[in-house]
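Long-time lurker, finally posting.

We've been working with RNA polymerase sigma factor (Paenibacillus rhizovicinus) and I want a structural starting point before designing mutants. I don't trust myself to interpret raw outputs, so I'm hoping someone here can both generate the structure tokens and explain anything notable. Sequence follows.
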Amino acid sequence: MDTSILEELMQRYGQDVWSFAYSLTRSRMMADDVAQDVFLQAYLHVASFRGESSAKTWLLKITRNISLNYRKSAFVRKVLLIDAVIPKQQEHSAEQSFLEREASNEVWRQVLRLSNKYREVLVLHAKYQLSLPEIADVLKIPQGTVKSRLFGARKKLSLMLTEDMPYELN
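Top reply, 14 upvotes:
Generated this for you. Predicted structure of RNA polymerase sigma factor:
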């Protein structure tokens, strides 16, 4: 692989790879290591990329596999994810901005409490906006299973949020 192609992949998808690794490992240090390994593996095994999926899907699949391997020997970590849940408005008071940030943080704290099978599909769908076929490809499961897990994840998350949310989202 030409190093310029590797650099382009890292520029284009580095944050997505790191964020997905972070959501799976729940550790900044591990996410750093995973991201580095992902791009090393991509560089070494570019010939295995057949173009049947997007480069992003391919990299996220590698990220998942490496993250799962790291996590097998990992200890429990705390993590906060931000974005992709609460739509942003134009102008906010400082108080409104704080409340929205807190609500978003709480949503992602609850997402991280979901079991891995639910958390994976929800993060890939909500944060990375992958389609059901792309998620199925990354996770190596049938599309019907993806759809079922996404429904289950949303239902569980909704229940968790109604039980634990100390303030309204609007």
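Before you design anything, note these points.
Residues 52 and 58 are 9 Å apart (CA to CA).
Helices lie at 3-25, 28-44, 55-72, 94-113, 116-126, 132-139, 143-164.
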